[in-house]
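Field: COMPLEX_INPUT
Field: COMPONENT_COUNT = two
Field: RESIDUE_TOTAL = 283
Field: MODE = joint
Values follow.
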Amino acid sequence: MTGWTGTDPVAWAKRQKRAINVLPARLVEAFANAMATRVGVGGFTPVDTGNLSRSVTISASPIMRDGPGYNSPVRQDYRAASSVAKGDGSAYVSYKAIYAHRVNYGFVGTDVLGRSYNQSGRGFNEANIARFPAILAGVVSKLRFE
Amino acid sequence: MTATTAVQDWLSLKARIDTLVTDPVLQRFEPNAVVTPPAGLAPFLLISDVRNDNDRNGWVSSDLNERSGTLILAVQWPLAAPVSHVQLMQIGGTIADHFPADLCMGRLRVTRNADVLQPYVEGAYRVVVVRVLWSSV
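Field: COMPLEX_OUTPUT
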């Protein structure tokens, strides 16, 4: 196009297409990072040993409570795992630690390992979900400049 | 000492919780309280006050800063005390009905009808969680 000095529409369209394609994975990765962020460093997830935070897992199907791999001490690579998120599919971000809902909703009593709990819920899951729109806006904002 | 906005929000929630009437009566434990389950296999209520990030709507100083949060009310019903699903849902529903959509508590407003979550068994208790979402400006 002779004399045209504005944005190349072909390049713009390519950028938009790429942004749409990578958005689901980026969003899942960002949300997993937020869920793993602990109290005291800008997050909501309570920390004692750090196991709860490290147990955040991205998967293509729901994680069942009695499934394998609970209390995994190794933090997942969220960038790699987020590839399960595709445009028209589903991805799940979960806390694998079996006691996660006890911490979230409160628990009074002793667990099978003999640990005593006496606490109301921390509600970190609700707080993370409430942060989701801001996380989405942040991811979209970054993609616009890539 | 003047109560901060954060404290005022909690006091508004607490004032509403204090007017809750249930059958049976539920002893209430506030956030971070040491929980001593009542004697005689009586059910009780754990209260959680969860705060979200503030949301600023606009860029000038006069614009609204919206606060929001979740009030979590968890009924703990001892497994040793027989209870039917109807009774569990009834007490959960009673609590939820106490926090209908658009209920105003001071500057707080309930943003939608409170949710009664699926009951589950945890340790020595059946648990019914009621979740109240609120926002405030």
